[in-house]
Design brief:
The chain is of the alpha+beta class. The chain folds into two domains: 5-91 and 132-214, 3-Layer(aba) Sandwich (Rossmann fold), CATH 3.40.50.2300; 220-350. It is 40% helix and 21% strand. The protein has helices at 59-69, 81-89, 92-110, 115-125, 147-152, 171-178, 193-206, 210-217, 222-229, 231-244, 277-286, 291-298, 306-311, 343-350; strands spanning 5-8, 11-14, 19-21, 46-48, 51-55, 74-78, 133-139, 160-165, 184-187, 247-251, 256-260, 266-273, 302-304, 320-322, 324-326, 332-338. It has an eight-stranded mixed β-sheet, sandwiched between helices. The radius of gyration is 23 Å and the shape is elongated.
């Protein structure tokens, strides 16, 4: 049986687990309006390995959490509040600049520029995006200031906020969570604190940023987003992405996911809806594919990568490639495609970014 839930001021508390959460803090901000907001799927269309930051005077907790984070996510540990605030208070303009860069990519794509080379160029030229803090943790036991006071000073910061607290009966904490100032509260206790905190950080670091998610959802059509919402597709696709990449962006046209692994090597996962099989067969025939290739497409053993090859400047190389299936009754057909090694560098040179 799961942990018992109590309702305190509209806030759900998982009392047995020592953790509670409220509405995301983005609700406090004026929403950025992009077409397609209502169609945002659960699958993270924009994901990258984020950073976490913690400020605490508990040396043991800090060291144990650093050991658990090692090799899984980047964690910066601060002993002093001033250094912590100084670091994160400098980030809002950098978050806005990163969003603007991606908005420009989408806008250029609307004017006919291929999206895949644009994203590769962005990744190659803007490594500073990886230095942004995604989640912060503040210890409520700091001697001179409360955790609520510290978190309230992070005005305009786009990350998620976690408070280490000693209980659930603090009215100020309940109000802070319900208002969106705090994303999660982790109860400190004699056992399990580090494990609960590590689990919360893992979940929050894997959660998409809502504004970036909305931006990239605009390139998808309704049937594509509906397929990505299917629970089995969502689970299997996310597993594929997390096993192969540390960063990825979903694209609606061509339909697929562009990702990069921990060594900086990009690759493409071509996607096709099973419901579009007749269209795919017709395209295979009109593009001059042989009978065996057309049959492979018709029998769902292959999918077309014509749009992908056109995107990367090799339209003549497009054809039928071996596919595998995801979801209930193979709702989504997929194929891995390699990115030519020199493409990102060529794009940077062509635009003066190299």
């Amino acid at each position: 049986m799961g942990a018992a839930l109590q309702l305190v001021g509209g806030l759900k508390i998982a009392a047995a687990s020592g953790e509670w959460s409220g509405p995301h803090r983005a609700a406090r901000q004026a929403p950025v309006q992009f077409p397609g907001i209502a169609r945002v799927p659960t699958f993270p269309l924009h994901h990258r390995a984020g950073r976490a930051a913690i400020v605490t005077t508990d040396e043991d907790l800090r060291e144990r959490l650093l050991r658990r984070a090692h090799g899984r996510y980047e964690l910066r540990a601060f002993r002093g509040v001033d250094a912590f605030l100084n670091e994160l208070q400098q980030e809002p303009p950098r978050w806005e600049h990163d969003l603007w860069l991606q908005q420009q990519i989408v806008e250029r794509a609307r004017r006919g520029r291929p999206l895949i080379p644009e994203v590769l160029r962005y990744w190659a030229a803007h490594s500073e995006r990886l230095e942004l803090t995604t989640v912060c943790v503040v210890d409520d036991f700091l001697c001179d200031r409360s955790g609520h006071e510290i978190l309230s000073e992070l005005v305009g910061w786009s990350g998620r906020r976690v408070l280490l607290s000693n209980g659930f009966d603090d009215g100020e904490t309940v109000d802070a969570v319900n208002s969106g100032l705090i994303e999660r509260v982790i109860r400190c206790g004699p056992q399990g604190t580090v494990e609960r905190l590590d689990a919360a950080l893992s979940v929050l670091l894997a959660s998409p940023n809502e504004r970036f998610q909305r931006l990239w959802a605009d390139s998808f059509n309704g049937p594509q987003l509906e397929a990505l919402r299917e629970p089995l597709v969502l689970r299997e696709l996310r597993t594929l992405a997390e096993e192969r990449w540390v960063e990825w962006i979903g694209i609606g046209q061509p339909f697929g996911i562009l990702g990069m692994d921990s060594h900086g090597v990009p690759s493409w996962l071509q996607l096709q809806l099973a419901s579009e099989l007749d269209t795919a067969i017709g395209r295979a025939m009109t593009n001059g594919l042989g009978k065996s290739e057309v049959d492979a497409v018709a029998n769902r053993r292959s999918i077309l990568d014509i749009d992908f090859q056109t995107e990367i400047g090799h339209p003549a190389a497009g054809g039928a490639v071996p596919a595998f299936h995801l979801g209930d009754k193979g709702r989504l057909l997929c194929a891995w495609r390699a990115i030519p090694a020199g493409l990102a560098h060529q794009e940077r040179t062509a635009t003066g970014l190299a």
